[in-house]
Amino acid sequence: MGVPDVAPPLRSSRRRPRLVALVVAGIGTVILSVVLESVLLRPYPIPLATSLAILVHALSGGRLAPDPCAGAALGPSGCFGATFIVLNIALPEVLLAAIVGAALGVSGGALQGVFRNPLADPFLLGISSGGTLGAAILYVYRFGEAQADLYLPAFAFLGSVGTGLLIFGIARGRQSSVETVLLSGVAVANLLSAVLSLVLLGNPFGAEQLTFWLLGGLALASWTVDGIALGGVVAVGTLLCLYGRELNLLQLGPDVAQSAGVDVPRVRLRVILLASLLTAVAVAFTGIIGFVGLVSPHIVRRLAGSDYRLVLPGSAAVGALLLLGANDASVVAFPSSYLPLGIFTAFAGVPFFLFLLLRHRRAAAMGVS
Amino acid sequence: MTGPSLAPAVRLDAASAAYGSRPALTDVSLTVAEGEFLALTGPNGSGKTTLLRLVLGFLAPTRGQVELLGETVGDLSVRERARRVAWVPQDEPAREDVPILDYVLYGRYAHHRTLEGDRPGEVALARSILGSVGLAGRESDGLLSISGGERQRATLARALVQATPVLLLDEPTAHLDIAHQLDILDRVRALARERRVTVVAALHDLNLAARFADRIVVLSHGRVAADGPAASVLSEELLARVWGVSADLHREARSGVPYLVPRHLLTEVSRDRTAPAAGPVHVVGGGGAARPILRALADEGFIVTAGALHLLDSDTETAEALGLASAIEGPFSPLSPSTRERHRRLLENARVIVVAPFAVGPSNVDNLWDVGPFASGTPVFLVSRPPIAERDFAGGDATRAYAALLERGAREVADLPTLLPALRGTLRAEPVRAAGGAAGRADR
Questions:
Q1: What residues in chain A have their Cβ under 8 A from chain B's Cβ atoms?
Q2: How many CB atoms are closer than 10 A to CB A362?
Q3: Separation in Å, CA of B5 to nearest CA in chain A
Q4: Phi and psi of B380, rounded to 5°?
Q5: What's the CA gap between A12 and B102, in Å, rounded?
Q6: What is the DSSP string of A315-360?
Q7: Is B30 left (phi over 0), alpha (psi -120 to 50) or beta?
Q8: For residues A106 and A114, what is the distance between their CA atoms, to the nearest angstrom?
Q9: Closest CA of chain A from B189, distance in Å
């Protein structure tokens, strides 16, 4: 046995610093985003130093920066207003962006893994549309308005999971290639948007509320919403991240995975369900935000390799960062209005998707696949 | 065959399998002992892969039993199966550029609990197995950056790290060049012996199967067509029967391992039982000279007879493999009156007589003289290369007999390629002569 005397450096040690850097960068971006957004977006600008002081004050429980508004020429009500904006509007929005971005990232990574296709994404597969339809039905027919915070995710969940199961059913068919599944997803997404239009015809007033929804945005953010979303994403995301090993083996083909001990049908069903669930949480509060789930896993694979034990949590971090970045970009570009976030991710995501598609084609043509 | 009182590693008991309504395996019974290296072979679609899939539990038998180490495969959980049997597919698709060591460690899945990382002992095991498949020092190379041969060895390592008592290989050499074919099977055999792993390998290549396996099982149309050590299983007849291929069987001088040299496909004519057969054509031969002629004529679909041949002669083996009616004498002895009489009956019955360019000695010179009386009534072709003078070991007697044949109207043809058109021309006009008891079908 040719075991080398000098053991090579422990594997994956190369990757650790990168991961740490990623986490640090993520936290830094969260803070920067809050500041940036609160400075630029509000009807009356809050000075940068004041925003920062308000945050530090709140985070330290009042021990640090005892008088955050001191530097700025703000009266007591002005100071109260600034504090309210930073802590109750800006911060929840930014956190929601991070939570939803993480959810979409993990969901995209898991779907790419389970379908063994780098083009899979909850939005492209129609899972997001399903969630939107569910939410739209709630809006239009005004079910349980009183507990909207609770019913909204429930309906979005039903819509997403229903779509996820439909796609799983298609994927299970003996003859279905991955391309079939993806194209079926596109078809299902179109059908769902037609159904959505039909539902909206029944109540034109609902349509107005839904416009924002269809384009995706953070306007629903509040600490309550954030709390529900965070709870859901942490719980489901953690469960999903436990399937890294199985997804690694699935990349070698379902037969090899099974021969190595993976219960392939069960793992597939669970991963698709969990990914739909995560998407549902995201869609319920922010509407359709596409392409984050597509792009994030690619960035992680580039940075950290294709071990799904890293790809899944990594996609969460990168997804959060991406959505925060998109949010900042939208704030910088159009400071005076809420620009739907989905527009921004589409502008960045579609070219990337086309790039992947073309590269994939070329690789397939060369027999690399 | 060892393993006292232990359950066999793999056991199929009258197992059948089907894809939908299409049967893939029918009533297959097979026992593989612990530590045995069994090669599974047969034409495409004969059920090799299906059999492996049954053992792996990918497919449930429609009838019968499939057992792994004494337990029914269907009763085992996916994970328990993965602890008993590992699988090396024909070509494991690499989509991600995973470092080889990580890839190999994926094979430990069945031994892990949820969330459990790779234990240090496992990393050491993976390293040592990578070393034994010749990939030491390549641990951090990506799967996409290594060659096909290396990837197949990495796949083997991935299966070995599963540490199962049974290893299944499905055409592990299909995409490899000859050096890598030998390399991978060498390693499998060495590892199987070293670790007492039972190996079942589906192999297209009969010569590889004969060289490496303790035992060969031939499948044909989903049934076991032959089962045993290579030396007793492989034959020209088997190739003709199962694959429809004409081949020559040789033995390696030193090892005695049989090897087959495929010649060509048996033509549709020879396999089409309803085609009108021409002949009989009687071939006089000996010492291996008639072998290519017998085979070519049988392949052409002629009814062929042969004589008078000696036992232990390779012409005799060929005639027997082809199931030809022939007159056969004991080894190395002069032709006895009864053999000559039988030979004469074959000659008499023949539509055409072909005399192969055999070496003529005292023990078989009578073969030439016996053709004489028929030469005036029956077309006789003398294959004349090499010339008779060079192969007359009967002190001129052979040359005289040959000249006598020419005198009576026998035609000389240089070799097999010139013989065949001449024969076809002669026989086209002539109907099949009413077959006496001696004439057999060419390919039965």
A1: 1-4, 7-8, 11-12, 116, 242, 245-246, 248-249, 251-253, 255-256, 258-263, 301, 305-307, 368-369
A2: 10
A3: 28
A4: -120, 130
A5: 9
A6: HHHHHHHHHHHHHHHHHHHSTTS---HHHHHHHHHHHHHHHHHHHH
A7: beta
A8: 12
A9: 15
- Residue B160 in tokens: 């070995």
Mean per-residue pLDDT, B72-77: 94
pLDDT tens digits for A159-174?
888 888 888 787 676 5
Model confidence pLDDT, tens digit, residues B197-246: 999 999 988 888 998 999 999 999 899 999 999 888 888 888 888 887 77
The CA distance from A129 to the nearest CA of chain B, in Å, is: 29
User: pLDDT tens, A335-353?
Assistant: 666 677 888 888 877 888 7
Pairing of strands B215-220, B223-228: antiparallel
Question: In terms of pLDDT, which residue wins out, B253 or B10?
Answer: B10
Name the pTM for this structure.
0.71
Residue B267 CA to residue B178 CA, distance in Å, equals: 29
Burial of B132: CB neighbours in 10 Å, binned 0-12, 13-18, 19+? buried
**Mean pLDDT of all residues belonging to chain B:** 84
Least Cα distance to B230 among B52, B11, B38 occurs for B38
SS3 B362: coil
Quick one: pLDDT at residue A41?
62
Name the residue facing A11 among B86, B93, B101 (closest C-beta).
B101
DSSP single-letter state for residue B75: G
Q: What is the ipTM of this complex?
A: 0.76
Residue type present at position B167 = L
| pLDDT tens, residue by residue, A35-50 | 666 666 655 577 777 8
Mapping DSSP to helix (H, G, I), strand (E, B) and coil, where does residue B141 land?
A: coil
Phi-psi region of B170 (alpha: psi -120 to 50; beta: other; left: phi over 0): beta
Q: How is residue B443 written in tokens?
A: 């390919």
